[in-house]
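hiii, so i know i said id send this last week but things got crazy w the move. better late than never?? heres the sequnce for the chain we talked about at the cafe, plus the structure i predicted for it. fair warning i was half asleep when i ran it
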Amino acid sequence: MQAVSGVFTTRAEAEQALESLDRAGIPAERVTLLSPGTLDRIEEEVKSVSVDETEQPGMGKALGGLVGGGIGVTGGSLLVALVPGVGPISAVGLLGAAILGAAGATAGAAVGGRGENAVTEGLPEDEIFVYEDALRKGRSVVIALAEDEPQAEPLRELLSHRGAESVDAAREQWWIGLRSAEEGHYSGGGNFKDDEKFFRLGFEAAMHARTRCLEFDQVSAEMDAALEDVQQRYPGQDVEQPFTHGYQRGREHYQQLCDQGKRAA
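okay and structure toks below
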């Protein structure tokens, strides 16, 4: 599986893109729409979800308490969760459940559909931090899993036609927003402009959804593996010092986002 993602300025544009993916024949379990919102707005969204015969009457009215308690609700149609460092997020479908679960959100009762195993093959864990940055800025994200590159390319064109910014462009905007502060903070013993490529690679490696919430002794092997991969890609270049410094700064950055979210809650 290969993830194809688009970042939209408005929720309405993202919903139109989701409808286009449906018309293109992409299975519902392979697409999701992620949207930010206040708890009040998400509660209204949840109340609008119809329940099926397996659910208790009045389930929709009970969901506001779950959201307010940070527990979250999940099902075949809708997931609502508080994501560390981001805030309240709603997601459509099983792929949304998998992505927000990887981002550290909790999940609970089924809403609007029977619970099923979420899609995990092709899950873009290395891009989740880019989605989160877009969501913090009030934007919406549409993600689809394609079978292979021949299927992925027309999906990219479809999202672009609907007004999406690519995830690569969103990633660049994310780094532009951080770059000046990181340059001012840099104490790696070298020139930031010379070291930036490898510093940034380390920073991004630390933001990987699989490892960013763990203690350093739990992720040191992951960092060493990522460093070895970069060294192999850039033989003969001074990689280790800026990469490891960037990795540590990435971990500190994510922790700051989580701390800010806790204070705002």
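btw Residues 240-264 form the longest helix (25 residues). thought thatd interest u
miss u guys!!
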